[in-house]
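W.,

You were right to be curious about this one. When I first looked at the sequence I had no strong expectations either way, so I just let the prediction run and decided to look at it fresh. Below is the sequence, 184 residues in total, followed by the output.
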Amino acid sequence: MPRLQFFINLTLVLVTFLYPFIWYFGQIYFGVTAVTILMACIWLLRALLSKQKLQKIMSFVLAFIFMLLCWMNSAKFMYWYPVMVSILLLLIFGASLFSKQSVIERLARLQHPDLPESGVRYTRCVTQIWCGFFIVNILIISALILGAYWRAWAIYTGVISYMLMGMLLSGEFLYRRLILKISI
């Protein structure tokens, strides 16, 4: 079972990264129904195999959304998946700002369980920056969809947004190491 769960999670990561291209070309060659069923099945399997309650709920919600999209059989709605993912991440990161530990603080504490107060403040700030990134990402993708710029949508969601995420991760890492000279 752990091997199956690993395979499902790996498949989901790959499908999420490749989704813009799977959708852009899949709808042309296989149709809307095939792509929505594929996505619904992958998310449903993840929901069934997940041990964490929140992850299970989110996976069921995404599986349900893809089933709904399959039933609606509308190509235009499928373009909103990256927006849904960004909204979901914004909700997770944003909600963590109102909890005891932000998402970034939890990640930092994996390596540094005794994180100083300055580190807590810093990780909270980084979490806020990620929230800003997700908001901008949602706005850009939504504008591309509403303007029906499908090729630009595929390039932005499949390449550019990942490059921006990588730049944000790298920039934060370099800033923390070279400017602040801290290792959290």
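Here's what jumped out at me. The chain has a mean pLDDT of 87. And, maybe more interesting for your project: The longest helix spans residues 117-146.

Coffee later to discuss?

I.
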